[in-house]
Amino acid sequence: MSATESAIASAEAHSAHNYHPLPVVVASADGAWMTDVEGRRYLDMLAGYSALNFGHGNRRLIDAAKAQLERVTLTSRAFHHDRFADFCTQLAELCGMEMVLPMNTGAEAVETAVKTARKWGYQVKGVPQNQAKIVVAANNFHGRTTTIISFSTDHEARADFGPYTPGFEIVPYGDLTALETAMSANTVAVLLEPIQGEAGVLVPPAGYLPGVRELTRERNVLFIADEIQSGLGRTGKTFACEHEGVMPDMYVLGKALGGGVVPVSAVVSSSEVLGIYRPGEHGSTFGGNPLACAVALEVIAMLRTGEFQQRATELGEHLHHELGLLTGGGAVEAVRGRGLWAGVDIVPSHGTGREISEKLMDRGVLVKDTHGSTIRIAPPLVISKEDLDWGLDQLRAVLGA
Ligand SMILES: *Cc1c(COP(=O)(O)O)cnc(C)c1O
User: Which residues line the pocket of ligand 1, CB cutoff 6 A?
Assistant: First the structure.
């Protein structure tokens, strides 16, 4: 057995099969490139679902983490630590908001957003106890907890995990009339991804996000934007909402906030909204820990320069131009996305998304399929144009284009 085969066999014997990874075993990585246990190199065109926007082993992030590792890594929130205030202040400022509630994973931050919206609904809006409703979109992906999968429309994510948490209403994504119809006096929030990532990088129709903003403002409902995947540079702006000139009431952030080093997530909002919490009402042992704050502070500093957003814009235009040439060529049905982020629908006769991903792997490019016939392209924002072009060459070769 090869080193790859034996590593995969052991993983399959001793880990739950809740993922179906491509058969590659990564041993090291640098920038946009990964190297497997047998020394083969691969161009990373997934970037950890945007957790690796700044690339593997980013020098600034690794240095910030190393320096913090030598000082203090964890205090719990029982005590203050000297990176916390800066992290919260600077993240709030980056978002144009006032307060931060730090957590670790994206799902925890979404849970925090749900709890915050409900509590705000009861304490500020005056919704009767236990009547709060949150409107979400079909085909959403917000994480994997029991409450979050309760408002998923993905059968695999839900089946056999009931009973489900009540209090959610699902409407078609991109449909303002359906959203308006679903809203009632007890609606406390609308929770949306400004671009639906897992659904296949679905960009809503122009005017949708401003429409949601207007409706929610009129009805005194919180607009919660889950920017865990779309945010922090991926689309060419710090937040995908900015493309439509929209400022939500709450950002939910994760993935790239931890720089691909540690899990860091947060809910960011106004002091009216996050000011509702009193000690003991919500928390996390690891949330806002010194190591997380040190890495995230470096992420925020990197985003403040605008250079990564600029790269995502420029390389994104190139990516979408090249992918656009493939549509109509017989192998690609449609391409969607924004910035350095694309969902590519493969014409089914050319193979499933999985088959295309495996063929790309054989040519040294790693991507991930979603929903049968779609592949997602989201390389680290630090990728060079030459490497991106090489990756696109491999895609064209696999598609026979
Ligand atoms: C990945 C993701 C989540 C969940 O984040 P985890 O860190 O995996 O819990 C939530 N929302 C969106 C939009 C995501 O892409």
Answer: 49, 105-107, 110, 141-143, 193, 197, 226, 228-229, 254-255
